[in-house]
Every structure is written in C-alpha cells, then in structure tokens.
C-alpha cells in the first residue's frame, strides 16, 4: 500500500524545525511518517548539493563537495528495528541505502569498531554478555553496559565527532521518552548540528521504574531546546482503523474496566479470555495459534519472563509450529559462540573451552538472577552429572567423525551434528535459538567449504555475527508466529496476539492504581490488528485481574 501523509502527518514531513517532537498513540503512524520525513530531508539535501555543484561548475571552480547526507534512525530494540526496516521500504524508495536503522547499542558498537582500535580499544574486540560474566573465564571485551559510555568517549574526540557530523543531516529517535540520561546525552553527541525528529508516546513508557525515567519530564526538557516544535498526531489507529482495540486499551490503562469500549471489544470478539487450570497454558496457546494460522493470520505471542518465553518456544517446537523467538539476543549470540567452539573442536583447533561455551549458552537461556544455573555448573564439570558426561562424550565422537583425512570436514555431516548437538546432550530449554543459530553456522560452513576449507573464515564470520546478535544488529528471518517477552512488544504488530500469563508473576512493588504497570496493558492490547487473546491461570496478578474479570 502506498503511503500518503495526511493532516498533521504532512506537517511532520514538511517541517524543517531543528528539533521536531512528534507525539501520538500506538498505531498512529509515527514511524512511517518519520521515514517519509527522512525521504523529504534527503531529497532537499540532494537538491541543495546539486545547486552547489552547478554553481561551482558555472563559476569554473573546482570545489570538493561533501558526500550525500544520510539519516540515522535510532531505536531501543532489535524487534523495533526489524519493523522499521519492513515498513520503510516503500516509503523511503530509492533512498533506502541512505537510511541507517540501528539500536542504541548496535550504533555504539559500530563507533567502537570503527574508531576504537586507534583510540584505546585494540582488536579483536568482543561483547561480553551477562551470561559470560556469571560463568566466568571470559577474555577481554566490553559488557553491554560499557558500550554506550565507550562510544561517548570516542565521540568526544574531534576526528570521530567530525566524521558523524559530516555523515548525518538528520537523526530520528523512536520512543525517545524512554531514554535515560546517559542515552539522551549519547543521542545529543551524534552529529550535534543535525536536525532531530523525536517520536514519543507517554502511554507506552513501560520502563519508567526499571530505567528510573520520567516520560513527561523528558518531553518537557526537549521542548526547551532551541527551535523545538511539537506536533501531535490524531488518535486514529492505522493498525485498527475501527478504533475498537485502541479504545479498549485506553480504558484499561485508566483502570476503567466498566467502560463501554471494553464491553464492545469483548462482545465483538476482538478480545477474549481463555482459562487454563493446570500446566503452563501451552496447550491453550498452541490451539489459539493454530486456529489463527489456519485463518491466514500472523501471530505474536507474549509471556512475562524470558524463561517462560523459552519454555513456550520449546513447546511450540515440539508441536511442529514454526516460529521466531524474539528478544533473546543473548541466547542467540551465545548459541553462535558455542557452535563456533564445537566447530573448532571438530577440526582439532585450539579453543579456550567447549564446555565453558556450552555453559554460557545454557546460562543465557535461563537468565535467572545473579547466579549460575545448575545445568551450566554441570556443563563446566560433567563429572557431577554422569548422563550429561556420557552425552558430551557421544557429541565429541560425532564431531571428530565429521572430519576426514587432512582436516577436511564433511560439511553436511558437521552441520547436522551441530544442529542436533543441544538435544544430543539432553538439554530441553532453548532449542529454537540453538536451531536458529545453527542455520547461520551451516551457512558459514558452506561458504568456507567452497574449495579448500577455510576454518579461519568460519571463525571470523561466526564471531562477527555473535557480536552483532548481542548488540541487536542482526535481524531474524520473518516468521508468521513470533514469541517474545511482553516487554519486547513495543514496535510489534500482528493480526492476532496471544498473551500467556502465569501464576505468581512479579510485576514490581506497585499496587492500585498501577500508574506505570497499566501502560503495559495499553501496549499489549494495541499490538493486534484483529484479535487479542489472554490465556490466564486460576490466580491472576492484580495488574491484570480486573481486566480479565471484565472480559468474562
């Protein structure tokens, strides 16, 4: 469908304000309109450059003109970046190569890789995940929390600052109300003279407690910047033009559960509740997902924790439902790291430790607080778990058997062994992220196997992709069913959404009227284009219980 800006959207596209704050609810077209504004900005910049070139030619001057401007679009999550890329192709058109979309941390990582080797960050650089920190024994690198400060340190250098100032004429930030003070300062350091388009919605500020931020304060401070202009988009949802689900979501956020909008959405079948009395609700979710897919719908499934997401993903995989697990970037990245260690073991190459790499992956799939989970501990010392030790020995034999005389591997066999390795050792959780990573490992093996096998090329490729996954650069294949932690829902949309709630879930210390938590209801309910389902246990947390009762 061709995008056509209307009303306030057109005002956004045509604005030349140095700082433009664009506010609007879920589905009001903020992202698409910002991309249209980026295209207009680039077209205008190209026209100015053409005029300068023509004037220089007519005057007989040889003038070194700047390179064509680019636009940087920053977001907070890999999932949102993927959505921006999907939505922008038709809008940005032939200028797509000049729109760079990145997360804050992936852009910081780009700065560090580009300029760090010359300014105190020697290669090879690596991203150290939280799982690596907990398991221990990692080599040198930067933790996730160190990336932005390191990039800011580099941006303070004149050479680095000038590079990005010349590169970008416009910086767009999605969900800017979610920036903490450090992220806000980082945003201002990138090409300070470039225009800013800042997209926001206070109703979607679901990280206020976690990040210690205040959306209203951030917006108010921004409006004090020189030349700042605010445009409020009308509340029409392009995701749900009927307005049924957005109206119900607004009422739920206000805790007005007797509002007609909620009754209307329920009676129209747009939002419903499914109970489960035993188990984890997986069977009920699978049933709803299968019915939605039979109708041709795309499906997004939300859970409250990463552990619940991994567990549900494994259940979907066992039932044969192809899906994409969204948001577990650490698990995906460390799966690639573990698989690289397996490749090195198969080829009898030096490696710091296969068992440690597997333990790190196990830890990344669990993410249970600040402790090493039992299975990861057992991976480090298999003698404490005899079945695991035997399974690891079988895996070791299979890996070595996949390599022939002269160290030339049977690529197909080695790929198969690595793909099935995690199930071979008897690990249950995390199958989908392991298989997802194994596809990339297989591709790297095939590329390196063209002619004489190049083990170094495999290592470089998987090392690069691992780091990109950890910082949010890599985007997964598009799948009709996606599973994610409900805090990863911003920027996502699907025909049908399914929220799986568990018993005894922790939503912080907040109580009624859940001023911050209720925004989560709004965000979750506005992801669906057609239908929103809640799958709930007997005991529902107080944040959700009044909504569940109203829908019944």
UniProtKB/TrEMBL annotation:
Keywords: ATP-binding, Helicase, Hydrolase, Nucleotide-binding. Pfam families: AAA_19 (PF13245). The keyword Ion transport does not apply. Residues 3-241 form the UvrD-like helicase ATP-binding domain. ATP binds at residues 24-31. GO terms for biological process: recombinational repair. GO terms for molecular function: 3'-5' DNA helicase activity; ATP binding; DNA binding; hydrolase activity. It comes from the Bacteria. This is UvrD-like helicase ATP-binding domain-containing protein. It comes from Streptomyces venezuelae.
């Amino acid at each position: 469908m061709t995008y056509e800006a209307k009303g306030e959207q057109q005002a956004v596209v045509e604005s030349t304000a140095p700082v433009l704050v664009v506010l609007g609810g879920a589905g009001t077209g903020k992202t698409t309109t910002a991309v249209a504004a980026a295209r207009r900005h680039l077209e205008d910049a190209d026209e100015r450059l053409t005029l300068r070139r023509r004037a220089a030619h007519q005057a007989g001057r040889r003038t070194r003109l700047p390179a064509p401007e680019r636009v940087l679009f920053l977001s907070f999550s890999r999932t949102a970046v993927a959505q921006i890329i999907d939505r922008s192709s038709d809008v940005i058109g032939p200028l797509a190569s000049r729109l760079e979309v990145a997360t804050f941390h992936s852009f910081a990582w780009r700065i560090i890789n580009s300029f760090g080797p010359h300014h105190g960050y020697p290669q090879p650089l690596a991203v150290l995940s939280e799982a690596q920190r907990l398991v221990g024994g990692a080599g040198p690198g930067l933790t996730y929390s160190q990336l932005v400060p390191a990039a800011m340190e580099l941006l303070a250098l004149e050479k680095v600052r000038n590079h990005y100032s010349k590169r970008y004429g416009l910086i767009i930030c999605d969900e800017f109300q979610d920036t903490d003070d450090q992220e806000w300062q980082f945003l201002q350091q990138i090409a300070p003279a470039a225009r800013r388009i800042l997209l926001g919605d206070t109703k979607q500020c679901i990280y206020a407690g976690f990040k210690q931020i205040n959306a209203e304060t951030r917006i108010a401070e921004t409006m004090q910047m020189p030349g700042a202009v605010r445009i409020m988009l009308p509340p029409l949802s392009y995701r749900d033009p009927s307005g049924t689900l957005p109206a119900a979501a607004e009422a739920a956020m206000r805790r007005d559960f007797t509002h007609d909008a909620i009754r209307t959405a329920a009676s129209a079948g747009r939002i419903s509740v499914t109970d489960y009395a035993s188990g984890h609700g997986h069977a009920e979710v699978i049933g709803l997902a299968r019915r939605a897919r039979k109708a041709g719908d795309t499906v997004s499934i939300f859970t409250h924790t990463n552990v619940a997401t991994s567990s549900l993903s494994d259940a979907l995989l066992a039932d044969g439902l192809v899906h994409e697990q969204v948001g577990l970037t650490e698990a995906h990245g460390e799966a690639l790291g573990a698989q690289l260690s397996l490749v090195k073991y198969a080829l009898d190459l030096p490696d710091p430790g296969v068992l440690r790499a597997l333990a790190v992956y196990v830890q990344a799939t669990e993410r249970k607080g600040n402790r090493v989970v039992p299975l990861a501990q057992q991976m480090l010392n298999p003698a404490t778990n005899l079945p695991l030790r035997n399974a690891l020995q079988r895996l070791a034999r299979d890996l070595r058997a996949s390599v022939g005389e002269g160290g030339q591997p049977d690529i197909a066999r080695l790929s198969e062994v690595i793909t099935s390795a995690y199930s071979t050792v008897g690990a249950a959780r995390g199958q989908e992220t392991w298989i997802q990573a194994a596809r990339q490992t297989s591709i790297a093996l095939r590329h390196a196997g063209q002619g004489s096998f190049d083990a170094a090329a495999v290592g470089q490729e998987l090392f690069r992709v691992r780091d990109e996954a950890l910082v949010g650069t890599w985007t997964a294949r598009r799948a009709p069913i996606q599973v994610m932690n409900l805090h990863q829902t911003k920027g996502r949309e699907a025909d049908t959404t399914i929220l799986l709630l568990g018993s005894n879930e922790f939503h912080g210390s907040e109580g009624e009227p859940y001023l911050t938590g209720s925004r989560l209801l709004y965000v979750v309910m506005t992801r669906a284009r057609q239908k929103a389902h809640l799958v709930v246990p007997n005991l529902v947390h107080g944040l959700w219980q009044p909504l569940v009762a109203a829908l019944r």
